[in-house]
Amino acid sequence: MAEHTPGPWTTDCTDGDGFAYIGSRDALVAIVQHGLLGSPAEAVAKANAHVLAASPELLEHGKALLEDVQALTRNDPTHFEVANVVALSALRLGVAIAKAERR
Fold first, then answer.
1. Which end of the chain is more exposed for a tag (fewer CB within 10 A), N or C?
2. In terms of domains, do 94 and 72 share one?
3. Residues 14 and 46 in one domain
4. Rounded CA separation 70/8 (Å)
5. What are phi and psi of 78, to 5 degrees?
6. How many helices (H) and strands (E) does the chain have?
7. Cα 20-47-34 angle, rounded to 5 deg
8. What is the pTM of this model?
């Protein structure tokens, strides 16, 4: 399987051309068409673009979460409750990242 374009990815919705561009510093990754400026579809498409742009960061957090949970439960299965707390914290962070409009 090929590797994805390394992050961070950002979105650019400023051209006023009806498209949101998602990419890294070195490569265009995706283009999301959002239609008429100011329409509800534009807001949804821009939100989708932000979620797509968060993908590399979410992947890295998911990998780290998996490693942490495996490490916590590998030697002592009674650490499952601690692993759940770690997992919930990481998931909350992932949702916050995906919703952030800082991209």
1. N
2. yes
3. yes
4. 26
5. -70, -10
6. 3, 3
7. 40
8. 0.67
Distance, CA of 58 to CA of 88 (rounded, Å) = 14
Residue 35 backbone class (left: φ over 0; alpha: ψ -120 to 50; beta: rest): left
Q: Are residues 44 and 15 in the same domain?
A: yes
The reply to whether 99 and 58 lie within a common domain is: yes
Interval 61-85: pLDDT, tens: 888 877 877 777 777 777 667 777 7
Identify whether residues 63 and 102 lie together within a single domain.
yes
pLDDT in tens, 4-28: 888 889 888 777 777 888 999 899 9
Say if CB 2 and CB 24 are below 8 A apart: no
Boundaries of domain holding 63: 54-103
82 and 49 within one domain: no
- State whether 49 and 88 are in the same domain: no
